[in-house]
């Protein structure tokens, strides 16, 4: 049975649905519609030992790893493309061996999230054959086998039972505890509308056990039900709806704002060393109590200057 | 022509790989720049597609990533990622994608690419973002690779195969169950490499004006056939103008 | 109350299965009617979902099919079919769907359903549409079944299992790899059947006013426990009014 | 390389992309957005021996089977729900054994089309376990094995290699030669927009080797590129675009028209006997040269009365 009002504040949503040791997945793509406001709250709450499904990751994953929230990172890509070509905190953690990680291709990771949403136990693909993602596992086979948060193994190469001459790579569907996505519009009951690319957001929302949705605008259900073909999620999917304007800052959000290039450049610098990164966390995350405080710190004119120009959909040069 | 940098010549060479009307998968970075130049000059009808799900975008500015809102302008669809990857998975059966454009940190003579890490995988000297869409592109479509031409990047054996090229010769892909597509060209800041039709080994096809063949040999960490090399044609005035605006 | 037909009583009994706030998968035909009645009376907050991908529709008229535009009115999303089926496939893990409503041509004591054909499958005496969404619903969620109560339909053994019920008892589903959900009730034009918690065998729970228990036994082609049967409560005035408008 | 103008008339589209012995798939759902104008043209051209993927089928499949176009029918459902509970020509053909058929659940068929669009070689599901769809095959195992249009077998029950206690049903992805869908808007180059439910249309369009799109309105590319998130197919997918207003008649088409209940009732009668059905074909299909002639026969006032009422989206009582 459903509850008709799922609105929570960010503190409550994160403390209810993100626990130490959970497997979480984040929506968005690199510098586009990343659920940064939720990421900042996870860091504020000092959540630990996360199993993190990054998808096409950017600073979101980098901050979580840098702040010590992550135990295992399932990677296909991590870059604030155009600003930081290899996210520095994640790179540092892998080079220093302070986290566990596993490598996939973006295609396969996308399909694994999709398989989770479709309720499929595993998938058979050609991708990754002939690459070292097949035989060099980031996580040891014994760990895969023993850790109850993981499937029994990363993958398996076998022949297609319907066509024995054909080799395929089988991969088990991940078990995601909580997905976090940022959307443009949601109703209090949980109907969601994403404008522009949806990336892997609908898949992780439907494949995870729980789903936190943060939104630019909290709108009346009637508005959304008038054009149901523009909505992606019904009330049945989200568990928490959090109103978080500019919740994807410093990333982009279709119809609302462009990325904050100045901020991304600052973050590129701030993520170079442990010292600088701690300063960044202290100033921008621990030092801001919530999303409202974070936005106040950015200031009105900065936020307004990020607003997309109609007809372009971004802030043109 | 003397004022053309190697990086600019590289962008021009890249743009030349895209013929008008082609459908190409474009990765972040230099491929984005090359594709934008092609679209503005010789290939206005090229269809550019991106692993983010943006299909047939018409950017007015150079985007910073394959998911940049700048790319979505005037697109024909904004697919969820799984739709794009399905289209790509079927491409080799249907011939609907002409080329994919990839980068990497290391390459070997068969065009196998490393964009994962340098050194021991579990204790890397240098870690990179990983595959992104590159492995899927390299699996399913013919590719053009873009890299800086440095000896440490052109290796006998790459430290990690992220994206398969021709593996170890003409039968390599078939043996491993991969579709029989593969690297068609490699564009660097020094010239353009091809892959021999029979052996699938890399050879020097073109060197840029001002570059010496020996310089290329010195910057290549394996024995490469240099015998077929010709000097690359300089860009047209029109292309030069656009290049200056964009770079 | 005497003027209530058995078919009307059946629709009322069906509507009673839907409690307010429940999420229910609704099939074509009588389930659609029962669900619409429930939505108009005791369960205005019920969320009705359909294998066509229409989610949480708010019909003002009785739709003719699960894809009817009448159903899409005021819906929350119109999912592609695969999204719906994914939601359904995950439902038993997440408990997000309370009940599915199914029909069929034959049923056995364990609630296994045939909606494919009568007689030999390869040379059928009567062929029906086949599974539609029924098999998927019966696989993944607890169900309420709706059928005409006729001896030839209530069989020792159905000619073809289209939608699995409890198979052959309490361990049947587990043995075959099926999620451990199953038939909860069977509503006919004579009464309401339950399935025993221990044995998973069908028993008579309620008979409609004007129906005799012996009449039900005569119309059931297998031995059914009749000992727990009580007479069904007649509908409220409000429900009666709505019923008269709709039927 | 793409051609920028894919507009053809229906005769040309069907004769180019639908051949005797092809495997075809049809979009729509029972009585909603079925590609009837194309079905009528296939019947006019007397195409034979089709392998027909019906999806949630209605009169479209029934007419093709009744007219003798079909050799093998892959079924999950066939009804003009609310008008004909079991399509009569298809039922008759199965009862008389004049076609081959195979039974699936709608869920599995939907997922198989989806797998074709995703390029997956096969799928693993729990659906159909415990049903006779597993062990009673409509098509004999020898035929599955020998016929090059079919996979090597219908399915296989095995254990999940990542969780050997779990049983799964594996099914091979169908190889569809040509998909036919009817959409509301398309550009000459092939960008398509569907309003309302999309059913399996995008999947079959992308999973098939060729794709015929028939459309209510042929619109300028610019209109469609202004809101790309409303489009489902880029120019890269369709091979033929056919302008066919009311092309889904007698089915419904969101934003355009409701089903023609009177026609569906007439068809229910017409499909009862061989004699009546031949009369129907002669009058409504062979007797109309093309879609224009068919619409003329229906007449202006009938077509206008089917137009949906804004705010309802159908023709209210």
Into how many domains do the coordinates of chain A divide?
2
CATH topology of chain B: Glutaconate Coenzyme A-transferase
Order of helices and strands of chain B: HEHEEHEHEEEEEHEHEEEHEH
- Report, as a whole number of angstroms, the end-to-end distance of chain A: 50 Å
Write up what this structure looks like.
The complex is a heterotetramer, with two copies of chain A (317 residues) and two copies of chain B (247 residues). With 317 residues, chain A is an alpha/beta fold. Chain A has 13 helices and 13 strands. Chain A has two domains: 1-121 and 175-317, Glutaconate Coenzyme A-transferase (3-Layer(aba) Sandwich); 123-172, Defensin A-like (2-Layer Sandwich), CATH 3.30.30. In chain A, a hairpin with a 5-residue loop joins strand 10 and strand 11 (192-193). In chain A, helix 2 (36-44) packs parallel to helix 3 and helix 5 crosses helix 8. The longest helix of chain A has 13 residues, at 106-118. Chain B has a single domain (6-246), classed as Glutaconate Coenzyme A-transferase. Chain B is 28% helix and 21% strand. Chain B has eight helices and 14 strands. In chain B, the strands form four sheets. In chain B, strands 2-1-5-10-11-12-13-14 form an eight-stranded mixed β-sheet, sandwiched between helices. Chain B has a two-stranded antiparallel ribbon with strand order 3-4. In chain B, helix 1 crosses helix 2 (30-40) and helix 4 packs parallel to helix 5. Chains in contact: A-B, A-C, A-D, B-D, C-D. Chains A and B meet through strand 5, helix 4, helix 5 and strand 9 of A and helix 3, helix 4, strand 9 and helix 5 of B.
Compact description:
The complex is a heterotetramer, with 2 copies of chain A (317 residues) and 2 copies of chain B (247 residues). Chain A is an alpha/beta fold and 317 residues long.
């Amino acid at each position: 049975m459903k509850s008709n009002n799922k609105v929570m504040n960010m503190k409550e949503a994160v403390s209810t649905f993100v626990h130490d040791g959970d497997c979480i997945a984040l929506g968005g793509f690199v510098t586009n519609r990343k659920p940064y406001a939720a990421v900042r709250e996870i860091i504020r709450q000092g959540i630990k030992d996360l199993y993190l499904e990054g998808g096409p990751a950017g600073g979101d994953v980098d901050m979580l790893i840098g702040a010590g929230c992550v135990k295992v990172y399932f990677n296909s890509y991590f870059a604030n493309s155009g600003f930081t070509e290899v996210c520095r905190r994640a790179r540092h953690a892998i080079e220093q061996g302070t986290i566990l990680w596993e490598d996939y291709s973006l295609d396969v990771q996308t399909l694994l999230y999709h398989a989770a949403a479709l309720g499929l136990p595993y998938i058979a693909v050609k991708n990754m054959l002939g690459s070292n993602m097949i035989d060099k596992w980031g996580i040891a086979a014994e760990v895969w086998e023993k850790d109850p948060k993981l499937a029994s193994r990363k993958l398996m190469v076998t022949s297609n039972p319907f066509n024995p001459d054909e080799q395929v790579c089988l991969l088990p569907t991940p078990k995601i505890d909580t997905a976090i996505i940022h959307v443009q519009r949601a109703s209090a009951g949980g109907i969601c509308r994403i404008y522009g690319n949806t990336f892997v957001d609908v898949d992780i929302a439907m494949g995870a056990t729980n789903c936190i949705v943060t939104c630019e605008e909290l709108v009346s259900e009637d508005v959304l039900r008038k054009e149901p073909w523009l909505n992606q999620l019904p009330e049945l999917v989200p568990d928490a709806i959090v109103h978080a304007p500019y919740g994807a800052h410093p990333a982009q959000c279709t119809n609302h704002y462009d990325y904050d290039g100045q901020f991304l450049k600052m973050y590129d610098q701030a993520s170079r060393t442990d010292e600088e990164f701690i300063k960044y966390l202290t100033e921008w995350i621990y030092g801001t109590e919530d999303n409202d405080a974070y936005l106040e710190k950015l200031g009105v004119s900065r936020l307004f200057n990020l607003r997309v120009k109609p007809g372009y959909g971004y802030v043109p040069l | 022509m003397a004022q053309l940098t190697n990086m600019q010549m590289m962008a021009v060479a890249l743009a030349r790989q895209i013929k008008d009307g082609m459908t190409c998968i474009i990765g972040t970075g230099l491929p984005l720049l090359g594709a934008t130049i092609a679209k503005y000059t010789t290939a206005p009808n090229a269809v550019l597609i991106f692993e983010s799900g943006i299909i047939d975008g018409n950017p007015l500015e150079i985007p910073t990533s394959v998911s940049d809102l700048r790319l979505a302008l005037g697109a024909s669809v904004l697919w969820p990622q799984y739709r794009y990857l399905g289209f790509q998975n079927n491409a080799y059966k249907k011939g609907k994608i002409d080329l994919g454009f990839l980068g990497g940190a290391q390459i070997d003579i068969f065009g196998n690419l490393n964009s994962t890490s340098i050194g021991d995988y579990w204790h890397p000297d240098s870690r990179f973002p990983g595959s992104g869409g590159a492995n899927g592109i390299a699996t399913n479509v013919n590719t053009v690779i873009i890299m800086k031409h440095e000896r440490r990047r052109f290796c006998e054996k790459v430290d990690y195969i992220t994206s398969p090229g021709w593996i170890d010769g003409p039968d390599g892909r078939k043996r491993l169950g991969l579709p029989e597509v593969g690297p068609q060209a490699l564009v660097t800041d020094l010239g353009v490499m091809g892959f021999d039709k029979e052996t699938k080994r890399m050879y020097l096809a073109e060197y840029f004006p001002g570059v010496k063949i020996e310089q290329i040999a010195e910057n290549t960490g394996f024995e490469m056939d240099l015998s077929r090399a010709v000097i690359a044609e300089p860009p047209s005035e029109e292309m030069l103008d656009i290049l200056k605006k964009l770079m």
